[in-house]
Amino acid sequence: MSGIYGNGVSLTEKMLDFLWTRETVTLNNIANDDTPGFKSQYITFEEELKERLSEASASGSPRKAVAQAIDSSKLRVHTTRSETTRLDGNNVDMDQEQIQLVRTAYEYQYMLNSLNNDFSRLKNVARTF
Questions:
Q1: I need a surface site. Which of 28, 29, 37, 42 has the fewest CB within 10 A?
Q2: What's the whole-model pTM score?
Q3: CA-to-CA distance for 90 and 82, rounded, in angstroms?
């Protein structure tokens, strides 16, 4: 499939994994809103991917290097230690978590639509033969 779409499908797959994990972490934060001492978590991925892709595009064989950069980019879960504004030590901001949840849902749907459109175009091309 990478011969037809380049690295697009693997990048979309990686982004879907990232968005799924971000939604899971956000839902965990929301579920622990009333847990005393709970510290919210967040995911980092986009900056690492951006950095790896920049390095890959400067290499001699960018297509292969980009594929490697996509595969080697990892999700990282971090815990927010500061920003406690409540007396019970919990730092979950429900407004921000709900915004993040909606944003993630829209991004996930956009990525699925993009992938479906790619496969629909491939299916339409295959029908002409």
A1: 37
A2: 0.82
A3: 10
